[in-house]
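User: My instructor asked us to take a sequence, write out its structure as tokens, and then describe one feature of it. I'm not sure where to start. Here is the sequence I was given:
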Amino acid sequence: MTDLEDNFRTNTISEVLHSIVKRKGWDNQYYQAQITNNWEKIVGTKIFKETAIHSLKNGILTIRTNSSTWRTELSLRSEQLINKINEELQSDVVEKIVIR
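Assistant: Let's start with the prediction itself. The structure tokens for your sequence are:
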């Protein structure tokens, strides 16, 4: 690529959006929305129906469930969930999961 071509490189809408999100400091909200929108795909229908994303702050994803059984199950699967979420987001956003 020449310098001129590099100056006029087009960005995808996704790249532009990500740039704005970063600049404004909206990373947590952006990634929380991404996780929420893809939650069923990430965890499957059974877990999706029993859980809800509550928040994402400083790498800690909080998930809500009314069932102690699901709290235990999700706690046991937390590493696997972290890997699946980060893979879906193509970024190491989630470092820890808290289930309430």
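For the description part of your assignment, you could build on this observation: The first strand starts at residue 51 and ends at 57. Try explaining in your own words what that tells you about the chain.
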